[in-house]
Amino acid sequence: QVQLVESGGGSVQAGGSLRLSCAASGRILNVYRVGWFRQASGKEREFVATITRSGTNTDYTDSVKGRFTISRDNAKNTVYLQMNSLKPEDTAVYYCAAGLTVVPTAAREYTYWGQGTQVTVSS
After folding, report:
1. What is the DSSP letter of 79?
2. Least buried of 22, 65, 106, 117, by fewest C-beta within 10 Å?
3. Is 45 left (phi over 0), alpha (psi -120 to 50) or beta?
4. What are phi and psi for residue 40, nearest 5 degrees?
5. Which pLDDT tens digit goes with each residue over 1-45?
6. How far apart are CA 56 and CA 37, in angstroms?
7. How many angstroms from the chain centroid is the CA of residue 120?
8. DSSP 99-112
């Protein structure tokens, strides 16, 4: 079992930055790929970013490429999502997830989920 806890959300103005953290407990995180997903009010959950177990490879949805960076510190059992140049359309609840995935952009591939952290970007 892995327990995931997100933190770092908040309210910022457009153009601002936030860094989300996803801290794991229960088992070491480096056996799992980790992804970030988000869900805006009234919309389906969508893929944002993912990182391999070693941290060597990452992938992003097109709308955040060049603005968001996913990273991990396996020694701290933590994954981060640095979000720069935030836009109002980035407003959502952000979730981190861990799993042994085959299709890393698919939410169904992830076994463990955090409770989410709210990010609100005002114009």
Report:
1. E
2. 65
3. beta
4. -85, 160
5. 899 999 999 999 999 999 999 999 877 888 899 999 999 999 999
6. 20
7. 15
8. E--SSTT-GGG--E
Q: Average pLDDT in the 107-119 region?
A: 96
What type of residue sits at position 114?
G
Maximum alpha-carbon separation in the chain: 40
Beta strands 33-39 and 92-99 are antiparallel
Can you tell me the distance from the alpha carbon of 99 to that of 112, in angstroms, rounded to the nearest whole number?
A: 6
Q: Which two tokens stand for residue 88?
A: 């109002």
The CB density around residue 44, as the number of other CB atoms within 10 Å, is 8
The first and second tokens of residue 116, run together, are 């989410």
Q: Which residue, chain included where needed, has tokens 């892995």?
A: 2
Residue 96: beta bridge partners? 36
CA atoms of 67 and 33, how far apart (whole Å): 21
CB 95 within 8 A of CB 9: no
Tell me what the mean pLDDT of segment 93-108 comes to: 93
Question: Would you list the DSSP string of 7-41?
Answer: E--EEEETT--EEEEEEEESS-GGGSEEEEEEE-T
